[in-house]
Amino acid sequence: MDDNGKTQTHDDRHSDAALPRFAVVGHPNKGKSSVVATLAQNDSIAIAMESGTTRDSHRYPMKVDDFTLYELVDTPGFQRPRKVLAWLQGHSLSASDRPDTVAAFVTQHSDDPRYHDECELLRPIVEGAGIIYVVDGSVPYNREHEAEMNILRWTGRPSLALINQIGSDDYSADWEAALGQYFQIVRRFDAVRAPFEKHLELLRSFGELAPNWREPLDAALEYLQALKFGRDHQALECMADALIEMLGHQQTVRLGEHERAALLLPTLRQRWQAWQREREQRLRHSVEDLYQHRRLQRQESDLSLPDGDDLFGERTRQLWGISKGQLAAAGFGAGAVGGAGLDAATLGHSLGTGALIGGLLGAAGSYYYSDKLTKVKLGPLSGGFREAIYGPLKDPQFGYVVLGRALVHWYQISQRNHAGRDVLVVTDSDGHWLEELSRGDRNGLQKSLLALSRRRFEPSKRQRLIEQLELAQQAFAQWQMKRFSEGQ
Amino acid sequence: MTSPLTRLLDFDDQYRRDSQQSQAFLHRRDRRFAQQQQDQRQPLTADTWLAELRALNDQRQSSGRDPRLRRWRQARWIFAGLGTVLGAAFMAGLLFYDGSRQINVTLLLLLVGVQLGLALLTSLQAWLGWQPWASLLGRTAEQGDPLQPLRPALSARIAHTGGLMFAISGLLTLLAMVTVQDLAFGWSTTLQASAEGYHRLVSVVALPWQSLWPAAFPSAELVAASQYYRLGDNPVSDPALLGNWWPFILMAWLTYVVLPRLALLVLAALQVRWQAAASLRRHPGYQPLFYRFETPWVETRGDEEAPRQPAPVQVAMAPLPETGTLIHWAGAGQASAGLVAQLTTQASPLQLRAGGNSSLEEDADTLRRAGERGQPVILVARGWEPPTGELADFLLDAREQWPAGTLLALVPLADEQGGELTDDKLLAQWQRFIERQKDASLLLCAANLP
Hints:
The structure holds 2 protein chains of 2 kinds. By secondary structure, chain A is α/β, with parallel strands linked by helices. Chain A contains 16 helices and 11 strands. In chain A, the strands form 3 sheets. Chain A has a 6-stranded mixed sheet with strand order 2-3-1-4-5-6, sandwiched between helices. A 3-stranded antiparallel sheet of chain A has the order 7-10-9, covered by helices on one side. The longest helix of chain A has 35 residues, at 214-248. Chain A starts with a helix and ends with a helix. By secondary structure, chain B is α/β, with parallel strands linked by helices. Chain B has 14 helices and 8 strands. Chain B has helices at 4-18, 23-39, 46-56, 70-94, 105-128, 151-180, 195-206, 220-225, 246-282, 286-294, 339-343, 360-373, 389-401, 424-437; strands at residues 103-104, 185-186, 298-299, 325-329, 351-354, 377-382, 408-413, 442-444. In chain B, helix 14 (424-437) links the parallel strand 7 (408-413) and strand 8. The two termini of chain B are 86 Å apart. Strand 2 of chain A pairs antiparallel with strand 3 of chain B, so a sheet runs across the interface.
């Protein structure tokens, strides 16, 4: 696989029949496309496509470096199952000729517009695909699906039934009992809400349909798991870069020799804030792009509201910032980390005084800056002009606000299935995720955020920041899980 | 082979260009390149990657004179020029001799020491990364400037270049002065120093070249003979002897000014290379690049298909006919006790079934019986289920079998209890279905009598 030439050879040997292919079929609007969208991680698949409009089947191969491991086929729903079954029954002599009869139906009706959808959905099955039959477990079982299930049984292909949960009612048990009579394997799967581990479990059960499909499916699962892990890490890098830029950003403007800087303060602050908002948007888009959510509608706090859930809104600050007490405590810790260097340098002869002094200074600094507004700094006069500089914000709270908002967005995106079509609401919440971090990690994070806001951040420390953000990411996920279980 | 500094800048340029691209595109592009390199057994480095991208973009290899280094190059030339001029002026001023008094060797040694100290201090601040002169270079560099961590080393290289030119031009001036003038050197100090003590000092200074050039090692006699005092005539027994100091001065300048500057300049140049290479390895785009090289490109999305939006439609709800035959499509609304009263004023209308799990024969029978009544037909369906081809076929058969102009009211329900469908999307779906049938007698109606 790491060798292109080898892959090519392998691909040539990989006959079309040996490729695990799964046709996702069923009645219209039962969530076939949702299942495919989630498993193929493709949010561009038209879900809830209107039935009756002509549709073709679409193939979604899972490729690793151009080598296909399996393929999902999204198909249109059954339109005339009773007529198809009647045709099949009218052309078959015995059970042994049933698969051929289905193939004959597809051949004979490929140009018939009435059976376009049936031909589209049966063709991949006739060509060797496994069957994934999707039903909606939130509506009561009724026998109107029996014609469809009978047609599928006639194909003789390995099959799996998937009970998708579209609505809130649950008739899965009835469905399970009924589907068990027609299908080898019956699984429940919520295409919109199932966590990633469930996607993998489902794919693993696809591999159980035929002995020679297990190996490529297992390999695919490993790649998908690695892909998820890689994305989580790349998201951390995006967050780290955004934090470095946002916390250290300076807005500058040229100032005439006799112009007063104070008059420029509102304009500079406005520009600085606009830049910060735009950078936060860029971070969000890059995280969405990483997880392949490309058609996501995002409903956020209205950024034009002066005091809503804006990045600089008071409510945002209350939600994602930390209390002055916590800030001072974290500042103490961060200062103590620095002061400990003095104790180390004196081989402990300072008896911890360094840590104590450093801690006190850190706490005082954090507390002092928490309400301090940024002033405009002036650069040296050159050619009749000088530079007026606004930023970075000497407020440790700002780092926590940016980080908190970045984490909640990342969490929602990373947990979101591609079948989701509801608008993403980036919500804020009560409680603080920082409580899930150990004291030492909190202090380390505080130290990094302070270094960023003072523009004393060395590029060499970026890796350390990423490691701290990884811990923050884990803490945030843990905090979210707790909130979720408390809400149950 | 590009220099590490140019490579770092080129890499940073590419990183900034790539930041506008999607991760998927970057991963595909870089993974493909990595596989190509492995197939051809070529090295997989940032250099080869940059060269490949340049070739792909039809860009020529830059000449290595990056415009962002222009300021540093200019500063280097200025310092070199200043060093040359100042070195010559400094040495000429130092060796200015009008015959009234000897040139003080002690002062020369002191200045050699100062030069050595300055050179070491320059390197020390570069190694420690201090930038006390940063404000001279304008305001702090823009964030993410790849040259930012290299500034101390680059500045040290410039300072050493100036220092080396200063030392060389000083050395050449010394040689010129020695050649064209008869210089008399001596030594003098306010401190209580004997000739023996001073000889020990110059012996220590001359240690490096003592065996290489014995003439450049002042003898005890020369030291004793060349001591002079501020007051008095200081008669010299042998004035020709006083010129014998010049080899010592020359070697002291060469050993303690020229060579350290040269060595430190080479070190500063190496430090720039090392730091540029280290900065490249620490660059935020470096590890992700190698991650993309090493990680297989996993593609699950298939071909992108733009979701087709259904054509917009104006939903037109018609009033229900007051009486009619009721057909439950796929059993819709059959469980609802109050549905009949909602749909018709008739006490007990004829209720039939079609679709769903009814057989095709049962559908045909329903069509026949409904047609015989000659009444309008109210067909009730589940509004949340999309209308399928089977329903379209049923309507087509009805049109063919029933008397022309028989009114057919299609009533999609919101639930099994017979609730009225109000969802705009679902209503639009039914409206479009009706329009596709092209039948003026087919109407979309609400599940309630007006």
